[in-house]
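Here we describe the complex-level prediction in full. Unlike the single-chain runs in Section 2.1, the two entities below were treated as one system.
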Amino acid sequence: MSDARIVDRGYRRYDGPRLGVRGAVRSLAWHSALRALGLRRTFWAKLLPLASVGIAYVPALVFVGIAALLPDQLVQGGGVLPGYADYYGFISAAIVLFVALVGPEVLCPDRRHRMLGLYLASPLTRDSYLVAKVLAVVPVLALVTLGPPLLLLVGLTFAGAGPEGFGEFLTVLARIVTGGLVISAAYTAVSLAAASLTERRAVASAGVILVLLVSTVATSALVAVGADERLLLLNVGAIPFELVQRIYGQAGRTPIPTAELVVANLAWTVGAGAVLRSRYHRLRITR
Amino acid sequence: MRATGLVKLWGATTALAGASFEVGSGVTGLLGSNGAGKTTVLGLILGLHPPDGGTIEVLGLDPATAGARVRERLGYVPEHEALAPDVRAHDLVRHLSEVHGLPSREATARASDALWLVGLGEERHRPVGTMSTGQRQRVKLAAALAHDPALLLLDEPTNGLDPMQREEMLALIRRIGSELGIDVVLSSHLLEEVERTCDATVILAAGQVVASGSMDALRSGGSGLVVDVDGGAELLAGRLRTDGFAVSVDGLRLVVEGAADAGADAVRDAAAAQRIGLRRVQARTATLEDVFLAAGDGAP
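The structure predicted for the assembly as a whole is:
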C-alpha cells in the first residue's frame, strides 16, 4: 500500500517577521539583476547580455594564456601584454553594448507593463525603488568593468607574470576595484537616466549607445579642429576610461588635469542620477 | 480604516470633496461611476499621495507618514494589466511577497499556496503572458494575497472578464472576505456585483460619500409590503385599493405602498375576507439601485 497522500495546506495566516524596506530593496535588486542577465528567462533573453559578458573576458583569457605559454623572459620584457588600464581598450565595445542593454532592461519593463504600480503599493517608495535598481545595475555592470581586469590580475599572478610582491599586488587590486567602480557608477547613472525617458527598451538602448558614441565623435571632432581640450569633459563615452588611466598613474590621452576629470565624472554621474530621480518623482502612478 | 473629511485636488480638478467613511470587517464595496473618486481613495489608503485635507487612518496608522508600514500589510490588485509577461506566475508572486517583507523561504511556500487558492496551482509555472485575461487577474489576486495582507484593495477586479470568469472571481472575493478573514475593499462601478458580494458599501459621487453603511442598513430604507398569494391577486388588490392603499400587481405578487404595519393588518383582513391564500407578507427592502438613485447619482 502506498504512503502517498495529497496534503491540502490551504491558505494560512502569517504572523512571522517582515523584513520591511530593506527586504524589499534586497529582493527587487536581486530580481532586477537576474532579469538584466536574462536569467530565469528565455534563451533569447540571455543571449546578448551573456555574450557581452563573455566577450569582455576573452582578452583576459587570451593574455593569461599567452603569459602561461610564452617564455618568462619574453613576457617580462614587456610589450607583449597590455597594462591593466589599457585592458579596457580591448573591451570598450562590449562594455558599451552591455551598458545599453542593462539599464533599459532593469527599468523600462516595470513601466511598460505597469509593475511599478505594484512595487509602489509595497513598502517601497519611489526613492527606495530607484536605490534597488541602482544596487542591481552597479554590480551587474561590474561583471564587465571589474571582473575581466580582476581575472587578468589573478591569471597573470598564477602564471608568474603578475605584480611583483604582495604590496604591489594589493596596489593593482585597489586600482582595478576603484577603476571598475568608477566606470560602473558613471554608466549606471547614464543608462538608467536614458531608460527613465522612455518605456521602450529598444529606444532606450539606442539612446544609450547614441549618447556614448555621439559624445565621443562630436567632442573628438571639435577638438581635432582646434576647439578647447576641455570639451572632452563632455565625452561621457571616454572620460570614465580616461580617469581610469589616471588611477593607474598613467598620463592618459588628454592633457586635462585629473581633478577636472574627477569633477566631470562626478557631474555626469550625479547629473544623470538627478534626471532619473526627477523623472520618477513626476511619474503619475494612480489617481 | 477610517477617513474623515478627505479632500484631494488634482490641479483644478476636485477628486474628493470632504469624503468621510469607515471600512469595517468583511467585504466593503466602494461604489461609484467613473470619475467618482474611487481610485483616488485607494491611492490615499496606500499612501501614494497625501490628502489635501482631512485625515485617513489605515490599520491604526496614517499612510501619508507611515506609508511603508501600512503598505506592508495591504494587498493591492490594480484595475489595469500590471504583470511582466515573460515571468512565471510563481516567480512573480514569490517576488512580490518578498517585496512585501516575507523571508524568501516563506515567500516561496506561500506563493504556491496563494496560486492554488485562486485556482492556478497547476498553471503556476507558466509565464504570465501565456495566460488568459481571467488567469492573469487571478495571478494579480494571488500576488496581493500571498503576503497575508490585513486589508485587500481590489480596483475593478472583474474588468475584462467574461461572465463565467466574473462569477468565479466574485465567489473568490466573497470567500476571501468570509473564510480567510481578510478584509476587502472592492472598488467597482458595477452596482450589481457590489450588491451581491459586499457586506457594506460606500457610495461615492463627485468626490463625496452619498451613502454608506452595511448592506442591511442601506436596504432597510425601503417602504411598503411585498405580498405573494396563491391566486386572486387582482381581487385582493381591488379590495386593498378600496381600503385606500396604492397597490401594484405583478403575477401572483402584490406590492403595497405605505406603512408596513398598517398594511400588513389590512392585507391579512382582506385576504381572509376574500378567502385568498397568502404565501408571504414581507416588508419591502430597497435595492442598492434604489439607494444609488436616491443618492442623486445615475445608476451605472
